[in-house]
Amino acid sequence: MINLAEIKTTKRPYREIESNLLVVGLFQDQQLNRQLKSLDVQIENQLSHAMDLEKFRGKKDTRLSLYGSETIKRIMLIGLGKQKNYTTDRARSIASNITCYADELKINSFTVDGDSLGLKKNLMNQAFSEGLILGSYRFDDYKTKKDENTRAS
Predict the structure, then answer these.
(1) Distance (Å, whole) CA 79 – CA 92
(2) What CATH number does the domain containing 102 carry?
C-alpha cells in the first residue's frame, strides 16, 4: 500500500513556507545558497552553527537535522556528495530515505527544496518522485492485523 497521497510544487521563498520539515540538499564543499543564508538569519544562525559544530560539508550519506522556527518546524540538510557523481539512482535513494525519515517522526507532510537537490532536470525529478513513492510503500496488504493490546512483559 502506498501512503504518499500528493506532491505539490511551489516557487515560494522559505520565509513564506509553513512546513513541519524542510529538506535541503547540499553538494560537497558548496556554500549555503542565498535562500538558506536568509533562513539561517531567520533562525538566529542555528544552521551555520550546527554545520560548523558537526563539520557538515555535504559529503555523501551525511545528514544534519535541527529545529527551525514557528513556520518551519524542522530542517534537514542532506549531503549529496560531489556534484559530478550525483545520479538518478542517488536522487531516488535520497527521496526514499526522506520519506522514511518523515514517517519515523510521524510527519504527514514535508517540503523539499527541489533546486538544491538538482531536480530541475526531468530525469532527476522523475527518479526523485519514484523514490518518494518507494519510500512510502508499506507491505501491509498481506499482514495480519496488529493487536495493539499485545505487549511483552
Answers:
(1) 14
(2) 3.40.220.10
Beta-ladder partners of 111 = 22
Which distant-in-sequence residues (6+ apart) come within 8 Å of 71 by Cβ?
Answer: 15, 17, 18, 19
Query: Taking the CB of residue 113, how many other CB atoms lie within 10 A of it?
Result: 20
The span from the CA of 50 to the CA of 114, in Å, is: 22
SS3 109: coil
Q: Is residue 145 included in any domain, yes or no?
A: no
Q: pLDDT tens-digit profile of 11-68?
A: 888 888 899 999 999 999 998 988 899 999 999 999 999 999 999 999 999 999 999 9
Query: Is residue 58 a part of any domain in this protein?
Result: yes
Cell matching residue 42: 531567520
User: CA 85: distance to chain centroid?
Assistant: 19
